[in-house]
C-alpha cells in the first residue's frame, strides 16, 4: 500500500506545489487595487503623467489589477510623499514624483520624509529645459552671454525647482539678480516678455510654444539648452530641441575648453537627475519581489502597446518614457552622486536662497 | 478670423459635443450650488474622463463647467448667506439680506439675468479683444499688480459700513492670518511651528465657509423658524428681478467690462474681482443707505462681473499659457492631455479651437442661466422651510466642502476655528468681509512689493500706470466722504438709480445684527 501511495502522494504534492507556485506568481495582483499617490494637484505635468500611467498600466500587469490615481496635495508635494513613506510596503501603493520632488528628497529638504534610496523606479519620463535671454540685455548671440548689460534679473519660483537653471548659471559664472515671488514658470515667462526679467528658462515644449515666437520677433535670443549627460559625462542634445546648443557645448565655444570644477560636477548630477525623472513612478524597494517584477513586466508590455504610445505622444511632448535598463541607470546615478557635490548643492541653495535641509 | 468663428460654430453643433457641453453645465451647476466646491473641483472631477475623448467635446465640457459655476454659486450666497464658491462672496452682502426680507426670488432673478448678460459680454469681449489682449496683459507688471492689490485693500472702508474702525481691525487680522504658511518670496514657513498642514497656509475656501456659513447656521438654529423673516410668498418673484436688471443695464455693462478686464490680468483671483466690483458699485452709487441691507444693485454688479470674468481669465490662459485662475491652471493641464500647447502660436495655428472655447463659453452661459432661472423658484422656497429641517444637510455639505480641500484632519479644525471667529465677530458686530479681503490680499501685496523692488529698485514708483492707480486709491478713500456729503444734500430729490430699494424694510443693521 505504502509503496503504491507514496509516489502518488509525492506526485500530487508536487503538482499542488507547482500549481500553488504558478498561481501565486501569476496572480500576485489578481483582484487587487494599486493606488498611485499623486502629491500634486490635478492638471499639472506630474499629475497628467501619473494619470496616463494609471490608465494604461493595470491591464498590462499580470493579474490585471485595478489602478487608481489619487491626488494627495499640499505643501509642494510634502504631504503626499510623506504619506507614501507611511503606507505598508506591500506593493499596493505607488508614488508619482516630479523631478524636483525627487531632488528635494535627494538633498533632504526640511520636513520631507521621502528617501529615494528606499525606492525603485517603475517608469519615468524626461523633460528638457531651454534658457533664453531678453534682447534688452544687449546681446545678439548666446556666445556673448558673459557680456550682458543692465539688471540681469532672473525670476525665482521655488529655488529648488529651478536648480538645473541656477546651477547652469553658476557653471558659466554669470552674476544675476534673483527676483523671488513668482508663482510658476508661466508667470516668469510673462515677466520675461515684459522685459522685467532678463533670463528665463522654460521646459523645452513650453519654450517651443511660447518663447520661440519672441525669438522670431526679436524680443529674445535663444541662449542654450540644459541638455542631458551620457554615462561617460559628455553632453547630449535635448531630443525636443536638437538644434539648440547645450550649455556645456556653449561653454566650450566661449572658453575653448569644457567646464570643470564643482559647478560642472553638480551640473552633471542635476541635469540628469531632474530632467530624466520629470515624472517618476516609485515603488518601495522593500515591496515583495513578485510585486516589483510584475510591475516591471507590466511597464515593459505597456510601452509596446500602440494605444499607450498614441496617448503618450501628446502628453510627453516629444520625449519617450524610460523603462527597463534606463531605470537601472537612474538608480545607479542616484547611488553614484558624490556626497561632496550634494553638500555643494545644499550650500548653494542655503547661501543664496536660505533653503534649509536636514541631510540624512 | 470670421471664417474660423463660423466653422467653430459648426464644430460645436455636433450632438456629442453639445451633449458634453450640457454635461459640463450640469456639473458646473451642481458644484456651484454646493458651498466650498467650485469650478476647480468640477474640472478635477471630470479630468480622468478626458483621456482619449474628442478634444473639442472635452474642452466644451470644461468650459461649460466654468461658465455655469458663477451663475449657480449664487443660490447658497443669496439663500443662506454662504458663499457658493470664492467668486460669489460679495453677493452675500446684499443678496442674503434680500432673502431674509422675503425677496429671494427677486434677488435670484436679478442675479441670473445679470449673470447671463455678463457672461455674453465676457464671451464677446474675448472675441473682440483677442487681437489686443497681449498689450493689455503685458501692461500689468509687478508694480501695477501691486497697486491693484492696494486698490483692493482700499475697499475695506466701503465694506465696513458704519463701523470703519472695527473694519480696519478685521482687515489687519485678515492680513495677519494670510501670512500663515509658506512666505511668498522667501523659502520659509511663518507661524507654522513645524506643522506640515500649515505650510500652505489656510485655505480660502475653508476660511470663507467658517466666517460666513457656520455663524449663519448656528444663529438660524438658535432663533428657530425660517430663513426669510417676513412674508409668506416669494416676494414679487423673479420677474421683478429681471426688471431690476433691465432698469440697471448701465450697471450690468459697466461691471461686466470691469470683470473682463480685471479677469484678464493674471494674479487677480476671482474673489478679488468680486469684492472690487462690489466696492466700486457702492462707491459710485449716489444713495448708499441700502447697501448691506438688501440693495439689488449689490447683487447685480458682482454677478455680472463674475460671469464676465470667465471670458477675461481665458485670455492669459490661451495666449500665454499663464493660468488666469486656479481653475484655469487645471484647464491648461487638460489642454496638455489633448496635445494643445497654449501660447501666442495657438492664435496663429489653431484659431478654430480658440473659437470653440468662446462658443462653449457663450452657449454654456445661456444654458446655465436658463437652468438656474428655472430652478430659482422651487429652490427659493427653501427660505420658507423651517431651518431645523435643512440645517443638517447644509452643515454636512459645508463640512464636506471644507474637507475636500486637502482631506486632512486640519481642514475640519480650521473650519471650526474660523467658524468660532466668524460667530464671535458677528456677535460683536465686527464686519467680516474686510477680514476676508485682508486674508486674500496679504500674500499678494507682499509678493508684488518684493518683485517690484527686486526688478526696478524704487523706480517702480514713477511708472505712469502705478501713479494712475494710486490716484484712484486716494479718490476711493476720500471720495466716499465727499459723496456722503452730496447724498445728504440731495436727500430730498430721489436719484435715478435708487429705485431698487424697497421702502418696506427699515431694519437698521440687517447684515450683522444677531437676532437671538
TrEMBL record, chain A:
<keyword id="KW-0732">Signal</keyword>
<dbReference type="InterPro" id="IPR005064">
    <property type="entry name" value="BUG"/>
</dbReference>
<dbReference type="InterPro" id="IPR042100">
    <property type="entry name" value="Bug_dom1"/>
</dbReference>
<comment type="similarity">
    <text>Belongs to the UPF0065 (bug) family.</text>
</comment>
<feature type="signal peptide">
    <location>
        <begin position="1"/>
        <end position="20"/>
    </location>
</feature>
<protein>
    <recommendedName>
        <fullName>Tripartite-type tricarboxylate transporter, receptor component TctC</fullName>
    </recommendedName>
</protein>
TrEMBL record, chain B:
<feature type="transmembrane region" description="Helical">
    <location>
        <begin position="318"/>
        <end position="341"/>
    </location>
</feature>
<dbReference type="InterPro" id="IPR002823">
    <property type="entry name" value="DUF112_TM"/>
</dbReference>
<feature type="transmembrane region" description="Helical">
    <location>
        <begin position="465"/>
        <end position="483"/>
    </location>
</feature>
<feature type="transmembrane region" description="Helical">
    <location>
        <begin position="382"/>
        <end position="403"/>
    </location>
</feature>
<feature type="transmembrane region" description="Helical">
    <location>
        <begin position="353"/>
        <end position="375"/>
    </location>
</feature>
<keyword id="KW-1133">Transmembrane helix</keyword>
<feature type="region of interest" description="Disordered">
    <location>
        <begin position="493"/>
        <end position="516"/>
    </location>
</feature>
<feature type="domain" description="DUF112">
    <location>
        <begin position="20"/>
        <end position="436"/>
    </location>
</feature>
<feature type="transmembrane region" description="Helical">
    <location>
        <begin position="191"/>
        <end position="214"/>
    </location>
</feature>
<feature type="transmembrane region" description="Helical">
    <location>
        <begin position="165"/>
        <end position="185"/>
    </location>
</feature>
<feature type="transmembrane region" description="Helical">
    <location>
        <begin position="20"/>
        <end position="51"/>
    </location>
</feature>
<feature type="transmembrane region" description="Helical">
    <location>
        <begin position="107"/>
        <end position="130"/>
    </location>
</feature>
<dbReference type="Pfam" id="PF01970">
    <property type="entry name" value="TctA"/>
</dbReference>
<keyword id="KW-0812">Transmembrane</keyword>
<keyword id="KW-0472">Membrane</keyword>
<protein>
    <recommendedName>
        <fullName>DUF112 domain-containing protein</fullName>
    </recommendedName>
</protein>
<feature type="transmembrane region" description="Helical">
    <location>
        <begin position="136"/>
        <end position="158"/>
    </location>
</feature>
Amino acid at each position: 500500500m505504502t509503496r503504491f501511495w507514496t509516489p502518488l502522494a509525492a506526485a500530487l504534492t508536487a503538482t499542488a506545489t507547482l500549481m500553488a507556485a504558478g498561481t501565486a506568481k501569476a496572480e500576485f495582483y489578481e483582484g487587487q487595487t494599486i493606488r498611485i499617490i499623486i502629491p500634486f494637484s490635478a492638471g499639472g505635468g506630474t499629475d497628467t503623467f501619473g494619470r496616463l500611467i494609471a490608465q494604461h498600466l493595470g491591464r498590462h500587469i499580470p493579474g490585471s489589477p485595478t489602478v487608481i490615481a489619487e491626488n494627495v496635495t499640499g505643501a509642494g508635494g510634502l504631504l503626499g510623499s510623506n504619506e507614501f513613506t507611511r503606507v505598508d510596503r506591500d506593493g499596493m501603493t505607488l508614488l508619482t514624483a516630479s523631478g524636483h520632488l525627487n531632488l528635494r528628497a535627494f538633498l533632504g529638504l526640511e520636513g520631507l520624509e521621502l528617501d529615494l534610496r528606499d525606492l525603485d523606479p517603475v517608469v519615468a519620463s524626461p523633460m528638457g529645459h531651454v534658457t533664453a535671454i531678453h534682447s534688452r540685455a544687449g546681446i545678439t548671440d548666446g556666445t556673448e552671454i558673459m557680456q550682458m548689460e543692465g539688471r540681469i534679473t532672473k525670476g525665482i519660483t521655488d529655488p529648488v525647482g529651478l536648480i538645473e537653471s541656477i546651477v547652469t548659471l553658476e557653471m558659466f559664472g554669470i552674476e544675476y539678480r534673483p527676483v523671488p515671488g513668482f508663482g510658476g514658470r508661466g508667470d516668469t515667462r510673462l515677466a520675461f516678455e515684459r522685459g522685467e526679467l532678463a533670463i528665463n528658462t522654460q521646459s523645452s515644449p513650453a519654450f517651443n510654444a511660447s518663447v520661440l515666437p519672441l525669438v522670431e520677433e526679436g524680443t529674445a535670443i535663444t541662449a542654450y539648452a540644459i541638455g542631458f549627460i551620457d554615462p561617460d559625462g559628455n553632453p547630449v542634445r535635448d531630443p525636443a530641441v536638437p538644434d539648440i546648443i547645450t550649455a556645456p557645448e556653449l561653454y566650450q565655444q566661449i572658453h575653448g575648453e569644457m567646464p570643470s570644477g564643482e559647478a560642472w560636477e553638480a551640473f552633471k548630477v542635476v541635469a540628469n537627475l531632474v530632467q530624466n525623472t520629470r515624472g517618476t513612478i516609485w515603488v518601495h524597494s522593500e515591496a515583495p519581489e513578485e510585486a516589483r517584477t510584475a510591475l516591471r513586466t507590466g511597464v515593459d508590455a505597456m510601452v509596446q502597446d500602440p494605444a499607450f504610445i498614441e496617448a503618450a505622444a501628446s502628453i510627453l511632448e516629444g520625449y519617450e518614457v524610460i523603462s527597463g535598463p534606463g531605470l537601472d541607470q537612474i538608480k545607479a546615478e542616484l547611488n553614484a552622486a558624490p556626497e561632496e557635490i550634494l553638500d555643494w548643492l545644499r550650500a548653494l541653495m542655503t547661501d543664496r536662497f536660505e533653503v534649509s535641509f536636514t541631510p540624512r | 478670423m470670421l471664417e474660423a468663428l463660423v466653422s467653430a460654430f459648426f464644430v460645436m453643433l455636433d450632438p456629442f459635443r453639445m451633449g458634453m457641453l450640457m454635461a459640463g453645465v450640469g456639473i458646473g451647476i451642481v458644484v456651484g450650488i454646493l458651498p466650498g466646491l467650485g469650478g476647480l473641483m468640477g474640472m478635477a472631477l471630470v479630468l480622468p474622463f478626458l483621456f482619449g475623448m474628442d478634444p473639442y467635446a472635452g474642452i466644451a465640457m470644461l468650459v461649460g463647467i466654468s461658465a455655469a459655476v458663477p451663475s449657480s454659486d449664487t443660490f447658497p450666497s443669496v439663500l443662506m448667506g454662504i458663499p457658493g464658491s470664492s467668486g460669489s462672496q460679495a453677493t452675500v452682502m446684499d443678496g442674503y439680506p434680500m432673502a431674509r426680507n422675503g425677496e429671494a426670488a427677486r434677488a435670484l432673478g436679478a442675479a441670473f439675468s445679470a449673470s447671463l448678460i455678463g457672461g455674453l459680454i465676457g464671451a464677446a469681449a474675448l472675441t473682440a479683444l483677442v487681437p489686443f489682449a497681449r498689450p493689455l496683459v503685458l501692461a500689468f507688471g509687478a508694480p501695477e499688480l501691486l497697486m491693484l492689490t492696494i486698490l483692493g485693500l482700499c475697499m475695506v472702508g466701503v465694506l465696513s459700513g458704519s463701523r470703519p474702525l472695527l473694519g480696519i481691525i478685521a482687515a489687519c487680522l485678515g492680513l495677519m492670518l494670510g501670512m500663515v504658511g509658506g512666505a511668498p518670496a522667501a523659502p520659509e514657513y511663518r507661524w507654522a511651528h513645524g506643522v506640515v498642514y500649515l505650510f500652505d497656509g489656510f485655505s480660502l475656501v475653508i476660511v470663507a465657509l467658517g466666517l460666513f456659513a457656520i455663524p449663519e447656521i448656528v444663529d438660524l438654529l438658535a432663533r428657530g423658524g425660517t430663513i426669510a423673516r417676513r412674508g409668506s410668498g416669494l416676494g414679487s418673484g423673479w420677474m421683478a428681478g429681471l426688471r431690476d436688471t433691465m432698469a440697471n443695464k448701465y450697471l450690468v455693462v459697466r461691471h461686466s467690462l470691469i470683470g473682463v478686464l480685471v479677469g484678464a490680468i493674471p494674479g487677480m483671483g476671482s474673489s478679488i474681482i468680486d469684492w472690487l466690483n462690489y466696492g466700486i458699485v457702492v462707491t459710485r452709487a449716489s444713495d448708499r443707505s441700502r447697501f448691506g441691507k438688501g440693495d439689488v444693485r449689490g447683487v447685480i454688479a458682482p454677478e455680472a462681473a463674475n460671469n464676465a470674468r470667465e471670458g477675461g481669465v481665458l485670455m492669459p490662459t490661451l495666449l500665454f499659457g499663464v493660468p488666469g485662475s486656479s481653475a484655469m491652471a487645471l484647464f491648461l493641464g487638460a489642454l496638455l492631455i489633448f496635445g494643445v500647447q497654449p501660447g501666442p502660436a495657438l492664435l496663429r495655428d489653431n484659431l478654430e479651437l480658440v473659437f470653440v472655447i468662446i462658443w462653449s463659453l457663450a452657449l454654456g452661459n445661456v444654458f446655465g442661466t436658463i437652468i438656474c432661472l428655472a430652478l430659482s423658484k422651487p429652490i427659493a422656497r427653501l427660505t420658507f422651510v423651517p431651518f431645523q429641517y435643512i440645517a443638517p444637510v447644509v452643515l454636512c455639505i459645508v463640512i464636506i466642502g471644507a474637507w475636500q480641500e486637502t482631506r486632512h484632519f486640519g481642514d475640519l479644525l480650521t473650519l471650526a476655528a474660523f467658524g468660532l471667529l466668524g460667530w464671535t465677530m458677528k456677535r460683536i458686530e465686527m464686519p467680516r468681509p474686510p477680514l476676508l479681503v485682508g486674508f486674500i490680499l496679504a500674500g499678494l501685496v507682499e509678493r508684488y512689493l518684493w518683485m517690484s523692488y527686486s526688478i526696478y529698485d524704487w523706480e517702480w514708483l514713477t511708472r505712469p500706470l502705478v501713479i494712475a492707480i494710486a490716484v484712484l486709491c486716494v479718490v476711493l478713500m476720500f471720495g466716499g466722504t465727499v459723496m456722503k456729503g452730496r447724498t445728504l444734500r440731495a436727500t430730498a430729490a430721489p436719484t435715478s438709480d435708487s429705485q431698487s430699494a424697497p421702502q418696506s424694510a427699515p431694519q437698521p443693521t440687517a447684515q450683522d445684527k444677531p437676532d437671538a
